[in-house]
């Protein structure tokens, strides 16, 4: 069993689903997504949580240029594979109440995107990584542009150009590393050993950083994000925020810092500061949002800013915090966007001003919403807590003052999330919200699963932390050894 | 060699067919003839060829590979021609004959081993194209295209010939090997005759491949010519031009790249920006494709700027990817134009519902032209960028990346029109020939995009 089955099953599924006529497409897609989850769980059961790469596949692809189909799973990849395979079936379930035009194409694109993202999370060859990176972008562009809201054409092209631009610069960086690598291949281990001077690493850092910073997004590369999240169909928003932005975070951990360690050292402070600015800036904007979906979009920038700050601090707590927070943020943000999808589908509005009192008429919905909200504001014993705690500790190890500013996220997050909850759910009902019907069927199922995950991961996060710990530690040690080498060389 | 003989005899046969009004037989005979020619070309593969006719021609793997892809592209284009030429002219046989004459010239262009043969090849091709551009005798635009093309082409031929003469004056040879030996023997010497000749050859070749600032004929000629002829010009002819360009420079002038590479770098940058930025402002799909072909000439120039062992396979992959995608684009344009009467972007509105198959193939073509992974166009760009970065021309690659981003705007305009805008017009039916050609082309685009090894290993 190698990871190629994990990558190619969704491709096959996408091709099959594309030919299914409207009604049955969602069932077929769900079937394949669950099958994919089963494969991932099987891998997890066989996974040994040490620093090694497992289930590896190596096949020649364009051997003349050192391009191989190399993919494998280590602790870092495992968490993201779980995140992807877990969220995709949930996201497909959230669409059960929608009637999409050309449903076959819609679900095929979602599955194809899943294949692209799993390629990114498991690729150990620079070329394969880049191909997966772009292969995930094309489907989401079409999902947003075909099934999105009114301004979708202008906004999605902006989104596409932004991300495409970033990734092309990354491509130059990858090619440059390849040409400097000892045995002239795109294999990740070969790229890690590329002989690149500190000065050249400085711009290699930027080539990668642009791609990842745009994807996450880190301030000031975030301007595409709120519009795109708002205009995309809710399933697309969930794919983007729940999984796709983790491609950027993962890229920083696996591709940016180890490939250009000396470049990273030169720009580390700036990267941490930009991330922290993003936390505060997005939170301040989130205070004043009138549209619920848009508010969640800004909250996502804020939370990702903290994840980025944790990684750029580059210590075990920070990176481990980022690992678990990626999983938690994925679960929570999908829950939040689903909540707003339910509200906007029933009431045809997402304006906070028009809402209120829903808790009175829909108690089950209100409970689920509250649990997810508390998970997002990182209440202890909810899943967000352990992640934020580790991340802040990581940033604190890097710099006290920056960590103090980053810590504002705890207060700010609570303010805007609880304000959102209060405006939407509490107070008196009005003539609109009084008609709100409580959740049923698949809605109950999805929100139930999410709530259980929020609580379980909050109370007992250790298994997840354990998966990635050895791999993260190993990676950090490798990079730190390079810092030491460079310092020693400097003294000589 | 057999390929060349077949391609020279076949048009004569076709002209006789035309004389006896056997119009129905034209296409089948052409297709069979081309397949036979292709077969003979492939048979010369890896034969360890030596220069023949006292060093005039050399049918090496380079020549076989480029003969192969030009013949295949011509085949695909001619398959689209069923029913097309009959509509615009009564002299159908001439179309087939002249296209094949041009193809014969192209085979010479990719197989020359002597500057004289290069010149003869270019002339056979160009004269045929002048006629093809103006073949709609009563159409104003077609006449303008032919005149413009002829005047500009004659000029550039003059430059080329002058350059060849000066190089002959300096080296005393037309033979590529002799010129290379002269270059190696005079490494540091600046010979006014030789270097002026080299620059004039660059100008002449840049005219032929439509690189800026020698591109002014391209848009008008492409727009005025019948669409299928435009397809032929922008794919097969361009491929041949670059093959000849590369063959000449890698055989003769590789050692003194310090002298001419800066010139070509400037030309490349100008070509990229002019092609892309002008394409951005076009309202006509056909004109957009004309300008996009200029920008692709810029990417193709990368292979010559970063001349090396991998240049030939880079040009091969890029040219094939570009040709195939362009054939899809022009094929779709012909169908849409027939229905709506215009070639503006708006005529593509709602094509996604009017004909999903056509929209899908055109989307694949646009993604390939834009260089999105998993399509052939990406592999072409990837090879070009790799070559340039390996020559430490990183700034050039960054400029190319900026241009690739600009190109997204106009390629995606078509996709947006097809899927996200609603258009009037009923469902559009695609003839069987078109389905075949567009389907095959889309398939080739994806296959090369996923597994380029079989084509990039040819040379």
UniProtKB/TrEMBL annotation, chain A:
GO cellular component terms, alphabetically, are: endomembrane system; membrane
**Membrane topology for this entry?**
Multi-pass membrane protein
- Which GO MF terms does the UniProt record name? NADH dehydrogenase (ubiquinone) activity; NADH dehydrogenase activity; ubiquinone binding
Sequence ranges assigned to domain NADH:quinone oxidoreductase/Mrp antiporter transmembrane in this UniProt record: 127-409
Keyword entries, A-Z: Membrane, Transmembrane, Transmembrane helix
The protein's matches in InterPro entries, at most eight in alphabetical order, are given as: NADH_Q_OxRdtase_chainM/4 (IPR010227), NADH_UbQ_OxRdtase (IPR003918), ND/Mrp_TM (IPR001750)
- Taken from the record, one Pfam family name reads Proton_antipo_M
Source species, domain of life: Bacteria
* Tagged with keyword Heme: no
Residues passing through the membrane, by range:
6-21, 28-47, 67-92, 104-121, 127-147, 159-179, 191-214, 235-257, 269-288, 295-316, 322-340, 361-381, 401-418, 445-465
Compartments annotated for it: namely: Endomembrane system; Membrane
A Gene Ontology biological process term: electron transport coupled proton transport
Q: Could you say which protein family the record assigns here?
A: Belongs to the complex I subunit 4 family.
* Name this polypeptide is given: NADH-quinone oxidoreductase subunit M
Which lineage ranks, top first, belong to the organism behind this chain?
A: Bacteria, Pseudomonadati, Bacteroidota, Sphingobacteriia, Sphingobacteriales
Automatic annotation (TrEMBL), chain B:
Key words, A-Z: Cell membrane, Membrane, NAD, Quinone, Translocase, Transmembrane, Transmembrane helix, Transport
- Sequence similarity: Belongs to the complex I subunit 2 family.
Q: Which GO terms describe its cellular component?
A: endomembrane system; plasma membrane
Compartment(s):
Cell membrane; Endomembrane system; Membrane
Q: Which Pfam families match?
A: Proton_antipo_M (PF00361)
Instruction: Give me the reactions it catalyses.
Output: a quinone + NADH + 5 H(+)(in) = a quinol + NAD(+) + 4 H(+)(out)
From the Swiss-Prot or TrEMBL record, give the protein name.
NADH-quinone oxidoreductase subunit N
Membrane topology per the entry is: Multi-pass membrane protein
What gene, per UniProt, encodes this protein? nuoN
Q: Where is the NADH:quinone oxidoreductase/Mrp antiporter transmembrane domain?
A: 114-407
An example of a GO molecular function for this protein is:
NADH dehydrogenase (ubiquinone) activity
Q: What does this protein do?
A: NDH-1 shuttles electrons from NADH, via FMN and iron-sulfur (Fe-S) centers, to quinones in the respiratory chain. The immediate electron acceptor for the enzyme in this species is believed to be a menaquinone. Couples the redox reaction to proton translocation (for every two electrons transferred, four hydrogen ions are translocated across the cytoplasmic membrane), and thus conserves the redox energy in a proton gradient.
One GO BP on record is: ATP synthesis coupled electron transport
Q: Which organism is it from?
A: Mucilaginibacter limnophilus
> Does NAD appear among the keywords?
yes
Q: Where are the transmembrane segments?
A: 25-42, 62-80, 92-110, 116-135, 147-174, 194-216, 228-247, 259-281, 288-309, 315-336, 357-380, 392-412, 432-451
Enzyme Commission number, as recorded: 7.1.1.-
Q: How does it assemble?
A: NDH-1 is composed of 14 different subunits. Subunits NuoA, H, J, K, L, M, N constitute the membrane sector of the complex.
Provide the top EC class.
translocase
